Amino acid sequence: MPDITVSIVEDDPEIRESLALLINGTPGFTCESTYGSAEKAIKGLVEDLPDVVLMDIQLPGMTGIEAIKVLKEKEPDLDILVLTIQSDNKVVFEALCAGACGYLVKDTPPAQLLEAIQETHNGGAPMSTRIARLVVESFQITAQTDLTARETEVLTHLCKGKSYKMIADSLFISEETVRRHIKNIYRKLEVHSKSEAVAKAFKEKLVNL
Amino acid sequence: MPDITVSIVEDDPEIRESLALLINGTPGFTCESTYGSAEKAIKGLVEDLPDVVLMDIQLPGMTGIEAIKVLKEKEPDLDILVLTIQSDNKVVFEALCAGACGYLVKDTPPAQLLEAIQETHNGGAPMSTRIARLVVESFQITAQTDLTARETEVLTHLCKGKSYKMIADSLFISEETVRRHIKNIYRKLEVHSKSEAVAKAFKEKLVNL
DNA sequence: CTGAAAATCCCCCTTTCGGGTTATAGCTTT
DNA sequence: AAAGCTATAACCCGAAAGGGGGATTTTCAG
Questions:
Q1: B22–chain A Cβ distance below 8 A for any pair
Q2: For chain B, which terminal residue's Cβ has fewer other Cβ atoms within 10 angstroms, N or C?
Protein backbone atom coordinates (compact mmCIF):
# COMPACT_ATOMS: atom_id res chain seq x y z
CA MET A 1 0.00 0.00 0.00
CA PRO A 2 1.42 3.41 -0.95
CA ASP A 3 1.93 6.12 1.65
CA ILE A 4 -0.91 8.47 2.48
CA THR A 5 0.14 11.83 1.07
CA VAL A 6 -0.56 14.92 3.15
CA SER A 7 -0.38 18.67 2.54
CA ILE A 8 -0.19 21.24 5.31
CA VAL A 9 -1.64 24.75 5.18
CA GLU A 10 -0.42 26.65 8.23
CA ASP A 11 1.09 30.10 8.60
CA ASP A 12 3.27 29.48 11.66
CA PRO A 13 6.54 28.09 10.24
CA GLU A 14 7.40 26.33 13.47
CA ILE A 15 4.14 24.40 13.68
CA ARG A 16 4.24 23.76 9.96
CA GLU A 17 7.70 22.24 10.08
CA SER A 18 7.06 20.14 13.15
CA LEU A 19 3.90 18.73 11.58
CA ALA A 20 5.81 17.94 8.41
CA LEU A 21 8.52 16.24 10.44
CA LEU A 22 5.97 14.18 12.34
CA ILE A 23 4.26 13.04 9.15
CA ASN A 24 7.43 12.31 7.22
CA GLY A 25 8.88 10.54 10.23
CA THR A 26 6.02 8.08 10.38
CA PRO A 27 5.99 5.03 8.11
CA GLY A 28 2.96 5.05 5.83
CA PHE A 29 2.71 8.85 5.67
CA THR A 30 4.36 11.39 3.41
CA CYS A 31 4.08 15.13 3.68
CA GLU A 32 3.96 16.12 0.06
CA SER A 33 3.83 19.89 0.37
CA THR A 34 3.35 22.72 2.86
CA TYR A 35 1.89 26.18 2.34
CA GLY A 36 2.04 29.28 4.48
CA SER A 37 -1.15 30.87 3.17
CA ALA A 38 -4.51 29.98 1.70
CA GLU A 39 -3.70 31.71 -1.57
CA LYS A 40 -0.49 29.75 -2.07
CA ALA A 41 -2.24 26.53 -1.15
CA ILE A 42 -4.97 27.07 -3.73
CA LYS A 43 -2.39 27.76 -6.38
CA GLY A 44 -0.21 24.82 -5.48
CA LEU A 45 -2.72 22.15 -4.55
CA VAL A 46 -4.44 22.01 -7.92
CA GLU A 47 -1.12 20.90 -9.40
CA ASP A 48 -0.43 17.91 -7.19
CA LEU A 49 -3.32 16.66 -5.13
CA PRO A 50 -2.53 15.00 -1.80
CA ASP A 51 -4.81 12.44 -0.18
CA VAL A 52 -5.49 14.67 2.80
CA VAL A 53 -5.04 18.39 3.44
CA LEU A 54 -4.46 19.69 6.96
CA MET A 55 -5.92 23.18 7.01
CA ASP A 56 -5.51 25.89 9.59
CA ILE A 57 -8.34 28.43 9.89
CA GLN A 58 -6.65 31.59 11.07
CA LEU A 59 -4.40 32.52 8.18
CA PRO A 60 -3.07 35.85 6.93
CA GLY A 61 -5.30 37.10 4.10
CA MET A 62 -7.87 34.58 2.99
CA THR A 63 -9.13 32.41 5.86
CA GLY A 64 -8.99 28.64 5.90
CA ILE A 65 -12.80 28.55 5.58
CA GLU A 66 -12.67 30.49 2.32
CA ALA A 67 -9.85 28.27 1.12
CA ILE A 68 -11.93 25.16 1.79
CA LYS A 69 -14.80 26.59 -0.24
CA VAL A 70 -12.57 27.37 -3.19
CA LEU A 71 -10.74 24.05 -3.07
CA LYS A 72 -13.92 21.96 -2.78
CA GLU A 73 -15.37 23.91 -5.69
CA LYS A 74 -12.43 22.81 -7.84
CA GLU A 75 -11.82 19.40 -6.28
CA PRO A 76 -14.99 18.05 -4.68
CA ASP A 77 -13.33 14.76 -3.75
CA LEU A 78 -10.41 16.27 -1.89
CA ASP A 79 -10.39 15.45 1.83
CA ILE A 80 -9.70 18.51 3.95
CA LEU A 81 -9.14 18.13 7.65
CA VAL A 82 -9.29 21.28 9.77
CA LEU A 83 -6.55 21.60 12.39
CA THR A 84 -6.89 24.79 14.38
CA ILE A 85 -6.94 26.45 17.78
CA GLN A 86 -10.36 27.97 17.26
CA SER A 87 -13.29 25.90 18.31
CA ASP A 88 -16.20 28.27 18.71
CA ASN A 89 -19.53 27.13 17.39
CA LYS A 90 -19.68 29.46 14.46
CA VAL A 91 -16.29 28.58 13.01
CA VAL A 92 -16.85 24.84 13.38
CA PHE A 93 -20.11 24.85 11.46
CA GLU A 94 -18.82 27.26 8.84
CA ALA A 95 -15.90 24.94 8.21
CA LEU A 96 -18.09 21.87 7.91
CA CYS A 97 -20.57 23.68 5.66
CA ALA A 98 -17.67 24.82 3.50
CA GLY A 99 -16.70 21.20 2.97
CA ALA A 100 -14.26 20.16 5.68
CA CYS A 101 -14.49 16.45 6.36
CA GLY A 102 -13.21 16.61 9.92
CA TYR A 103 -12.22 19.05 12.64
CA LEU A 104 -9.35 18.74 15.08
CA VAL A 105 -8.23 21.21 17.70
CA LYS A 106 -4.52 21.87 17.94
CA ASP A 107 -3.90 20.16 21.25
CA THR A 108 -4.47 16.80 19.55
CA PRO A 109 -1.56 14.50 20.44
CA PRO A 110 0.62 13.34 17.51
CA ALA A 111 -0.57 9.75 17.62
CA GLN A 112 -4.19 10.80 17.36
CA LEU A 113 -3.46 13.26 14.60
CA LEU A 114 -1.91 10.49 12.52
CA GLU A 115 -4.83 8.24 13.32
CA ALA A 116 -7.22 10.99 12.20
CA ILE A 117 -5.41 11.37 8.90
CA GLN A 118 -5.63 7.63 8.41
CA GLU A 119 -9.32 7.67 9.29
CA THR A 120 -10.02 10.53 6.91
CA HIS A 121 -8.40 8.58 4.13
CA ASN A 122 -10.58 5.59 5.01
CA GLY A 123 -13.72 7.65 4.49
CA GLY A 124 -14.21 8.80 8.05
CA ALA A 125 -14.71 12.20 9.60
CA PRO A 126 -12.53 12.54 12.67
CA MET A 127 -13.41 15.22 15.18
CA SER A 128 -12.03 16.21 18.55
CA THR A 129 -14.17 15.10 21.46
CA ARG A 130 -15.81 18.44 22.12
CA ILE A 131 -16.39 19.16 18.43
CA ALA A 132 -18.14 15.85 17.88
CA ARG A 133 -20.53 16.60 20.71
CA LEU A 134 -21.22 20.06 19.28
CA VAL A 135 -22.02 18.54 15.92
CA VAL A 136 -24.30 15.86 17.32
CA GLU A 137 -26.12 18.32 19.56
CA SER A 138 -26.86 20.47 16.54
CA PHE A 139 -29.37 17.83 15.50
CA GLN A 140 -31.27 18.01 18.74
CA ILE A 141 -34.13 20.38 19.39
CA THR A 142 -32.93 23.40 21.26
CA ALA A 143 -35.61 26.00 21.60
CA GLN A 144 -38.45 25.54 24.01
CA THR A 145 -41.54 27.30 22.75
CA ASP A 146 -44.90 27.31 24.43
CA LEU A 147 -46.76 26.26 21.30
CA THR A 148 -49.67 23.91 21.94
CA ALA A 149 -49.83 20.53 20.23
CA ARG A 150 -52.36 21.82 17.73
CA GLU A 151 -50.31 24.90 17.00
CA THR A 152 -47.22 22.78 16.37
CA GLU A 153 -49.28 20.69 14.00
CA VAL A 154 -50.38 23.78 12.10
CA LEU A 155 -46.82 25.08 12.04
CA THR A 156 -45.66 21.79 10.58
CA HIS A 157 -48.10 22.19 7.71
CA LEU A 158 -46.95 25.78 7.20
CA CYS A 159 -43.42 24.42 6.89
CA LYS A 160 -44.54 22.22 4.04
CA GLY A 161 -45.63 25.36 2.22
CA LYS A 162 -49.37 24.82 2.56
CA SER A 163 -51.99 27.55 2.34
CA TYR A 164 -54.61 28.21 5.02
CA LYS A 165 -57.16 26.37 2.91
CA MET A 166 -54.99 23.28 2.45
CA ILE A 167 -54.23 23.14 6.16
CA ALA A 168 -57.91 23.44 6.97
CA ASP A 169 -58.66 20.51 4.67
CA SER A 170 -55.85 18.40 6.14
CA LEU A 171 -56.95 18.95 9.73
CA PHE A 172 -60.69 18.89 9.02
CA ILE A 173 -61.29 22.28 10.58
CA SER A 174 -62.45 25.57 9.11
CA GLU A 175 -60.07 28.01 7.49
CA GLU A 176 -61.03 30.49 10.18
CA THR A 177 -59.71 28.20 12.88
CA VAL A 178 -56.47 27.77 11.00
CA ARG A 179 -56.27 31.54 10.87
CA ARG A 180 -56.80 31.72 14.62
CA HIS A 181 -54.06 29.15 15.32
CA ILE A 182 -51.68 30.97 13.02
CA LYS A 183 -52.39 34.26 14.76
CA ASN A 184 -51.42 32.62 18.05
CA ILE A 185 -48.31 31.08 16.50
CA TYR A 186 -47.22 34.47 15.17
CA ARG A 187 -47.72 36.05 18.57
CA LYS A 188 -45.74 33.34 20.36
CA LEU A 189 -42.91 33.22 17.82
CA GLU A 190 -42.96 37.00 17.48
CA VAL A 191 -43.24 36.94 13.69
CA HIS A 192 -45.64 38.52 11.23
CA SER A 193 -45.73 36.33 8.14
CA LYS A 194 -45.72 32.75 6.97
CA SER A 195 -42.24 32.91 5.58
CA GLU A 196 -40.89 34.35 8.80
CA ALA A 197 -42.62 31.63 10.80
CA VAL A 198 -41.26 28.92 8.52
CA ALA A 199 -37.77 30.37 8.73
CA LYS A 200 -37.91 30.45 12.51
CA ALA A 201 -39.33 26.94 12.69
CA PHE A 202 -36.48 25.58 10.60
CA LYS A 203 -33.75 27.52 12.33
CA GLU A 204 -34.91 26.53 15.79
CA LYS A 205 -35.97 23.04 14.78
CA LEU A 206 -39.50 23.53 16.09
CA VAL A 207 -40.94 20.94 13.74
CA ASN A 208 -40.20 17.32 12.88
CA LEU A 209 -40.62 17.01 9.14
CA MET B 1 -12.07 7.47 40.09
CA PRO B 2 -15.24 5.37 40.28
CA ASP B 3 -16.16 2.94 37.51
CA ILE B 4 -18.17 4.18 34.55
CA THR B 5 -21.59 2.55 34.93
CA VAL B 6 -23.26 1.21 31.80
CA SER B 7 -26.75 -0.11 30.96
CA ILE B 8 -27.49 -2.27 27.95
CA VAL B 9 -30.75 -2.28 26.01
CA GLU B 10 -30.63 -5.17 23.52
CA ASP B 11 -33.17 -7.87 22.72
CA ASP B 12 -30.76 -10.63 21.67
CA PRO B 13 -29.79 -12.36 24.95
CA GLU B 14 -26.55 -13.64 23.54
CA ILE B 15 -25.28 -10.24 22.44
CA ARG B 16 -26.60 -8.72 25.64
CA GLU B 17 -24.72 -11.13 27.85
CA SER B 18 -21.50 -10.94 25.92
CA LEU B 19 -21.56 -7.15 26.07
CA ALA B 20 -22.20 -7.30 29.81
CA LEU B 21 -19.32 -9.71 30.21
CA LEU B 22 -17.02 -7.50 28.22
CA ILE B 23 -17.91 -4.43 30.25
CA ASN B 24 -17.77 -6.14 33.64
CA GLY B 25 -14.54 -7.83 32.67
CA THR B 26 -12.82 -4.53 32.04
CA PRO B 27 -11.37 -2.52 34.92
CA GLY B 28 -12.99 0.89 35.16
CA PHE B 29 -16.33 -0.25 33.75
CA THR B 30 -19.38 -1.75 35.42
CA CYS B 31 -22.48 -3.02 33.65
CA GLU B 32 -25.14 -1.91 36.04
CA SER B 33 -28.22 -3.34 34.33
CA THR B 34 -29.44 -4.91 31.10
CA TYR B 35 -32.88 -4.77 29.47
CA GLY B 36 -34.43 -6.84 26.71
CA SER B 37 -36.90 -4.22 25.53
CA ALA B 38 -37.39 -0.47 25.31
CA GLU B 39 -40.39 -0.59 27.63
CA LYS B 40 -38.51 -2.41 30.39
CA ALA B 41 -35.56 -0.07 29.97
CA ILE B 42 -37.72 3.02 30.39
CA LYS B 43 -39.27 1.58 33.52
CA GLY B 44 -35.98 0.44 35.00
CA LEU B 45 -33.61 3.23 33.99
CA VAL B 46 -35.46 5.99 35.82
CA GLU B 47 -34.77 4.12 39.07
CA ASP B 48 -31.02 3.84 38.82
CA LEU B 49 -29.34 5.99 36.20
CA PRO B 50 -26.11 4.70 34.65
CA ASP B 51 -23.47 6.99 33.19
CA VAL B 52 -23.97 5.62 29.69
CA VAL B 53 -26.75 3.60 28.02
CA LEU B 54 -25.97 1.32 25.08
CA MET B 55 -29.14 1.25 23.01
CA ASP B 56 -30.08 -1.06 20.18
CA ILE B 57 -32.51 0.30 17.58
CA GLN B 58 -34.35 -2.74 16.32
CA LEU B 59 -36.28 -3.95 19.38
CA PRO B 60 -39.54 -5.83 19.77
CA GLY B 61 -42.37 -3.34 20.39
CA MET B 62 -41.15 0.18 20.91
CA THR B 63 -38.06 0.99 18.85
CA GLY B 64 -34.81 2.26 20.29
CA ILE B 65 -35.46 5.65 18.65
CA GLU B 66 -38.73 6.03 20.52
CA ALA B 67 -37.04 4.91 23.71
CA ILE B 68 -34.36 7.57 23.30
CA LYS B 69 -37.03 10.25 22.90
CA VAL B 70 -38.85 9.15 26.04
CA LEU B 71 -35.69 8.79 28.09
CA LYS B 72 -34.24 12.14 27.06
CA GLU B 73 -37.57 13.75 27.87
CA LYS B 74 -37.29 12.47 31.43
CA GLU B 75 -33.52 12.61 31.80
CA PRO B 76 -32.04 15.21 29.46
CA ASP B 77 -28.53 14.69 30.79
CA LEU B 78 -28.43 10.94 30.26
CA ASP B 79 -25.85 9.86 27.67
CA ILE B 80 -27.28 7.34 25.23
CA LEU B 81 -25.00 5.64 22.77
CA VAL B 82 -26.64 3.81 19.87
CA LEU B 83 -25.17 0.40 19.07
CA THR B 84 -26.94 -1.26 16.16
CA ILE B 85 -26.63 -3.08 12.87
CA GLN B 86 -28.69 -0.57 10.98
CA SER B 87 -26.85 2.31 9.43
CA ASP B 88 -29.11 3.76 6.79
CA ASN B 89 -29.29 7.50 6.56
CA LYS B 90 -32.79 7.86 7.91
CA VAL B 91 -32.26 5.84 11.08
CA VAL B 92 -28.97 7.56 11.90
CA PHE B 93 -30.45 11.04 11.75
CA GLU B 94 -33.62 10.03 13.55
CA ALA B 95 -31.53 8.64 16.38
CA LEU B 96 -29.39 11.75 16.64
CA CYS B 97 -32.44 14.03 16.49
CA ALA B 98 -34.07 11.94 19.19
CA GLY B 99 -31.11 12.67 21.46
CA ALA B 100 -28.49 9.96 20.97
CA CYS B 101 -25.04 11.28 21.70
CA GLY B 102 -23.19 8.81 19.52
CA TYR B 103 -23.74 6.05 16.98
CA LEU B 104 -21.79 2.82 16.64
CA VAL B 105 -22.40 -0.01 14.24
CA LYS B 106 -22.27 -3.51 15.69
CA ASP B 107 -19.05 -4.63 14.06
CA THR B 108 -17.16 -2.25 16.34
CA PRO B 109 -14.31 -4.20 17.96
CA PRO B 110 -14.49 -4.54 21.78
CA ALA B 111 -11.55 -2.24 22.43
CA GLN B 112 -13.13 0.54 20.41
CA LEU B 113 -16.49 0.03 22.04
CA LEU B 114 -14.96 0.51 25.47
CA GLU B 115 -13.08 3.53 24.20
CA ALA B 116 -16.34 4.95 22.85
CA ILE B 117 -18.07 4.50 26.21
CA GLN B 118 -15.18 6.27 27.87
CA GLU B 119 -15.31 9.06 25.31
CA THR B 120 -19.05 9.47 25.74
CA HIS B 121 -18.54 9.85 29.45
CA ASN B 122 -15.89 12.50 28.78
CA GLY B 123 -18.38 14.59 26.84
CA GLY B 124 -17.63 13.25 23.38
CA ALA B 125 -19.82 11.84 20.66
CA PRO B 126 -18.23 8.71 19.24
CA MET B 127 -19.36 7.54 15.83
CA SER B 128 -18.30 4.74 13.53
CA THR B 129 -16.22 5.91 10.58
CA ARG B 130 -18.98 5.80 8.00
CA ILE B 131 -21.54 7.39 10.32
CA ALA B 132 -19.27 10.32 11.11
CA ARG B 133 -18.83 11.03 7.43
CA LEU B 134 -22.59 10.86 6.89
CA VAL B 135 -23.12 13.35 9.66
CA VAL B 136 -20.48 15.77 8.43
CA GLU B 137 -21.72 15.57 4.85
CA SER B 138 -25.18 16.53 6.03
CA PHE B 139 -23.84 20.04 6.57
CA GLN B 140 -22.66 20.40 3.02
CA ILE B 141 -24.77 21.77 0.22
CA THR B 142 -26.30 19.00 -1.79
CA ALA B 143 -28.71 20.27 -4.38
CA GLN B 144 -27.52 22.07 -7.45
CA THR B 145 -30.10 24.54 -8.67
CA ASP B 146 -29.79 26.82 -11.65
CA LEU B 147 -30.68 29.94 -9.70
CA THR B 148 -28.75 33.04 -10.74
CA ALA B 149 -26.71 35.01 -8.22
CA ARG B 150 -29.40 37.66 -7.97
CA GLU B 151 -32.11 35.08 -7.53
CA THR B 152 -30.18 33.39 -4.74
CA GLU B 153 -29.82 36.78 -3.12
CA VAL B 154 -33.58 37.35 -3.28
CA LEU B 155 -34.23 33.84 -1.97
CA THR B 156 -31.94 34.54 0.96
CA HIS B 157 -34.02 37.56 1.87
CA LEU B 158 -37.20 35.50 1.53
CA CYS B 159 -35.68 33.04 4.00
CA LYS B 160 -35.32 35.86 6.50
CA GLY B 161 -39.05 36.37 6.27
CA LYS B 162 -38.93 39.67 4.38
CA SER B 163 -41.78 41.05 2.29
CA TYR B 164 -41.45 42.07 -1.36
CA LYS B 165 -41.25 45.68 -0.27
CA MET B 166 -38.48 45.07 2.27
CA ILE B 167 -36.47 43.09 -0.24
CA ALA B 168 -36.87 45.85 -2.78
CA ASP B 169 -35.54 48.37 -0.26
CA SER B 170 -32.61 46.15 0.73
CA LEU B 171 -31.50 45.58 -2.85
CA PHE B 172 -32.31 49.11 -4.09
CA ILE B 173 -34.57 47.85 -6.84
CA SER B 174 -38.28 48.24 -7.46
CA GLU B 175 -40.84 45.93 -5.97
CA GLU B 176 -41.77 44.90 -9.50
CA THR B 177 -38.31 43.55 -10.08
CA VAL B 178 -38.43 41.62 -6.86
CA ARG B 179 -41.70 40.14 -8.09
CA ARG B 180 -40.08 39.16 -11.36
CA HIS B 181 -37.16 37.45 -9.61
CA ILE B 182 -39.51 35.60 -7.31
CA LYS B 183 -41.59 34.43 -10.26
CA ASN B 184 -38.45 32.95 -11.76
CA ILE B 185 -37.42 31.39 -8.45
CA TYR B 186 -40.84 29.76 -8.11
CA ARG B 187 -40.61 28.37 -11.63
CA LYS B 188 -37.12 26.95 -11.07
CA LEU B 189 -37.88 25.49 -7.65
CA GLU B 190 -41.31 24.35 -8.80
CA VAL B 191 -43.13 26.02 -5.90
CA HIS B 192 -46.01 28.45 -5.70
CA SER B 193 -45.65 30.42 -2.48
CA LYS B 194 -43.12 32.10 -0.25
CA SER B 195 -43.45 29.54 2.50
CA GLU B 196 -42.93 26.67 0.06
CA ALA B 197 -39.86 28.39 -1.36
CA VAL B 198 -38.44 29.01 2.11
CA ALA B 199 -39.10 25.42 3.13
CA LYS B 200 -37.35 24.11 0.03
CA ALA B 201 -34.45 26.50 0.47
CA PHE B 202 -33.87 25.29 4.04
CA LYS B 203 -34.31 21.62 3.28
CA GLU B 204 -31.93 21.68 0.35
CA LYS B 205 -29.56 24.21 1.91
CA LEU B 206 -29.86 26.58 -1.01
CA VAL B 207 -28.99 29.62 1.09
CA ASN B 208 -26.20 30.58 3.49
CA LEU B 209 -27.81 32.44 6.34
C1' DC C 1 -20.21 42.72 -33.00
C1' DT C 2 -24.11 40.08 -31.94
C1' DG C 3 -27.34 37.38 -29.56
C1' DA C 4 -28.77 35.17 -25.37
C1' DA C 5 -29.34 35.52 -20.66
C1' DA C 6 -29.99 38.29 -16.80
C1' DA C 7 -31.76 42.22 -14.54
C1' DT C 8 -34.68 45.88 -14.52
C1' DC C 9 -39.50 48.02 -14.64
C1' DC C 10 -44.73 48.42 -15.60
C1' DC C 11 -49.83 47.02 -15.88
C1' DC C 12 -53.69 43.91 -15.26
C1' DC C 13 -56.37 41.04 -12.07
C1' DT C 14 -57.61 37.51 -8.35
C1' DT C 15 -56.54 35.15 -4.29
C1' DT C 16 -54.38 34.84 0.02
C1' DC C 17 -52.83 36.83 4.20
C1' DG C 18 -52.66 39.40 8.48
C1' DG C 19 -54.83 42.12 12.05
C1' DG C 20 -58.85 43.46 14.63
C1' DT C 21 -63.01 41.82 17.12
C1' DT C 22 -66.36 38.51 19.05
C1' DA C 23 -68.17 34.09 20.66
C1' DT C 24 -68.96 29.21 22.40
C1' DA C 25 -67.86 24.61 24.08
C1' DG C 26 -64.70 21.76 26.67
C1' DC C 27 -61.13 21.00 29.80
C1' DT C 28 -57.86 21.99 33.68
C1' DT C 29 -56.48 24.39 37.63
C1' DT C 30 -57.22 26.87 41.58
C1' DA D 1 -67.61 27.42 41.45
C1' DA D 2 -64.78 30.51 39.10
C1' DA D 3 -60.95 31.52 36.31
C1' DG D 4 -58.04 30.39 32.57
C1' DC D 5 -56.55 28.15 28.54
C1' DT D 6 -57.47 25.65 24.18
C1' DA D 7 -59.88 24.63 20.15
C1' DT D 8 -63.37 25.76 17.41
C1' DA D 9 -65.83 29.30 14.23
C1' DA D 10 -67.33 33.70 12.08
C1' DC D 11 -67.00 38.60 10.12
C1' DC D 12 -64.65 42.83 8.04
C1' DC D 13 -61.04 45.17 5.66
C1' DG D 14 -56.84 46.62 3.74
C1' DA D 15 -52.36 44.95 2.43
C1' DA D 16 -49.53 41.49 0.40
C1' DA D 17 -48.75 37.92 -2.65
C1' DG D 18 -49.16 35.43 -6.95
C1' DG D 19 -50.21 34.67 -12.05
C1' DG D 20 -50.72 36.60 -16.69
C1' DG D 21 -49.01 39.71 -19.95
C1' DG D 22 -45.14 43.02 -22.14
C1' DA D 23 -40.87 45.94 -22.46
C1' DT D 24 -36.13 47.93 -21.88
C1' DT D 25 -31.42 47.91 -20.50
C1' DT D 26 -26.98 45.44 -19.02
C1' DT D 27 -23.82 42.01 -19.31
C1' DC D 28 -21.12 38.61 -21.06
C1' DA D 29 -19.59 34.87 -24.07
C1' DG D 30 -18.93 33.38 -28.68
A1: no
A2: N
